[in-house]
Amino acid sequence: MSNTPEPNPIVDPISGFLNRNAGMVAASQLLAEANSSNGVLIALWIDMDRFRQINDSFGHSGGDRVIGHIAERIRNCAPEDSNLLRVGSDEFVVLMCAQEVLGAEQIAGRILLEIEQPLMIDGILIHPSASIGLAWSRVNDDPGALLERADRAMIDAKQQGGNRFVVSGSEAVPGRLGAKLAREELAIESALHLALESGGLELHYQPIIRPDGRIEAVEALMRCTVDNAKIPPDKFIPVAEKSGLIVRLGEWSLLQGTRCAARLRDQGYATKVAINVSRLQLISTDFLQALHGALICANVPPELIELELTESLFMDISPTVQTNLHSARALGVGLAIDDFGTGFSSLASLKDIPATKLKIDRAFIKLLPGDRRTLAIVKAMAQLGRELGMIVVAEGVETLEQLVACEVAGADACQGFLHARPMPEDDLLIWMHARKQS
Ligand code: C2E
Ligand code: CA
Ligand code: CA
User: Fold this and answer.
1) Domain count, the chain
2) pLDDT level of residue 405 (50, 70, 90 thresholds)
3) From ligand 2's centre to the CA of 342, what distance in Å?
4) To test the ligand 1 pocket, which listed residue (201, 237, 245, 249) has its Cβ within 8 A of the most ligand atoms?
5) 311: CA distance to ligand 2 center in Å?
6) Which ligand 1 atom is nearest residue 339's CA?
7) Mean pLDDT within 194-212
8) Cα 65 from Cα 51, distance rounded (Å)
9) β-strands 83-88, 91-98 pairing
């Protein structure tokens, strides 16, 4: 009796994917299901770039090993319930039922990023890449037609230089959302993962100053550097929000920010540290535990920590958010309403949130002192804040004239480039020491 396993007639032994014939049968079934349930079947046709070169350099056994690795990478990115086909020597198809094309574009982008990771074959580092065509089923489609559209889009992707995906039907539309934007976002997302794992994150601190020169607080602002390149917060924060990574970044901020408050206290400064918190953190029932954990780890009194609540929070204040905010407040942690006066933050939010601070958005301050109507609005906001027992802060104060106008309007403290730019923790301490001396 032989020990060699029987070859599986429907599975390609190198990739572990369905072979072409079995794949076509599966595609027919999935299409029938999609048609009967008004769903959509999406096909990603993936073709390796320059695969002949790989085969020529490493022979067929080397080529097969590359295929095995690439198949594994595709499998890691594809949704669990998708069907994976090997339809040619270096060609694969991912079939997935989807709600929307956008989600499939994200998956295509992820596959490209995963495939382009370097690969060691016979001691040589190679840089694979692929081209992907994306097509979705139409009513009463047949599998041949669907796959042909995906194949054609893939050829377009190759003609545009490879290492990209093209959505069938959009080949002629330049700059369409898909390819470029989704890939840029995915590149930022993967940079953020890298930054989290390899120490590429840092908090910079910007002081908030009272008219008498006392420091009201310092705001912790996240910085991200990957491969010596800085990614600006207005680029990475929205991507982190969209991908959900903001929860991990936010927990990291809490830990670092509370640690900084403890260090300042140890150096003789009882200065509050304000930490930005995203809506995604606050809608979680785990938030209080994360906050509590950070306070205990750093061994810092809650009164030295303030949470800045971004405007996205005010879109819906759920019972969990309410509980989290009231419990944080009960611990002694301060709550600041950030970017007040713009977007979704509104007067109604003042009633629902036990806030201790109101931060008037930079958009108003930058029109001061010239714009009299804006000055009237800033005055009214400051009065409202104060009557509700809050400390009022003007954000983005860049000139002496703005500083004077804010103080006249009733702001209790000002934050902006005029006083100081955000700086690393060590520089903040030097800055604070120097101020104390003078
Ligand atoms: P923000 O909370 O409104 O932070 C203030 C922003 O204004 C900072 O931008 C700061 O550098 C900038 N700024 C301060 N003074 C001036 C000024 O005088 N003029 C001008 N033009 N700008 C000034 P930054 O550091 O780029 O951060 C942007 C946003 O990213 C923050 O806006 C905040 O919403 C978000 N962010 C930063 N760090 C975190 C974080 O750890 N977690 C979360 N969830 N969001 C964060
Ligand atoms: Ca803030
Ligand atoms: Ca702000």
Assistant:
1) 2
2) very high
3) 13
4) 237
5) 10
6) 3
7) 95
8) 12
9) antiparallel
Q: What is the CA radius of gyration of the chain?
A: 28
Question: Are 197 and 107 found together in one domain?
Answer: no
Length of the chain: 438
Cα–Cα distances in angstroms (integers) from residue 397 to residues 217, 341, 354, 424, in the given order: 15, 16, 26, 20
Helix and strand numbers, DSSP H then E, in the chain = 16, 17
Same-domain check for residues 303 and 280: yes
272 and 204 both lie in a single domain: yes
Quick: pLDDT tens for 141-168: 889 999 999 999 999 888 888 888 888 8
Can you tell me which residue has the tokens 């339809």? 87
Q: Which domain holds residue 354?
A: 181-437
- Give pLDDT, residue 172: 41
**Tokens 């780890």 sit on residue:** 297
Q: Pick from 176, 198, 222: which residue ends a domain?
A: 176
Greater model confidence, 294 or 1: 294
* 1 confidence band (pLDDT: 50, 70, 90): very low
Answer with the one of 176, 206, 227 that is the final residue of a domain: 176
Q: Which residues pair with 393 in a beta bridge?
A: 359, 413
- With respect to residue 161, please indicate whether it lies within any of the assigned structural domains: yes
* Coil, strand or helix at 26: helix
226/164 same-domain check: no
Does 247 lie in the same domain as 170?
no
Q: Do 126 and 219 belong together in one domain?
A: no
pLDDT, tens only, 52-64: 888 888 888 999 9
Q: Are residues 410 and 325 in the same domain?
A: yes
Instruction: Report whether pLDDT(430) > 90.
Output: yes
167 and 227 share one domain = no
CB proximity list for 214: less than 8 A, separation 6 or greater: none
Q: What is the CATH number of the domain that holds 352?
A: 3.20.20.450
In whole angstroms, what is the distance from residue 203 CA to residue 211 CA?
Answer: 26
> Which-ligand-closest: CA of 422?
1
Token readout for 374 is: 């804006």
Region at 342 (left for phi over 0; alpha for psi -120 to 50; beta for the rest): beta
Report how far apart, in Å, the C-alpha atoms of 196 and of each of 201, 351, 429 are. Answer: 6, 36, 25
What residues contact 389, with CB distance under 8 A and at least 6 apart? Answer: 356
Q: Whose CA is nearest to atom 13 of ligand 1?
A: 396
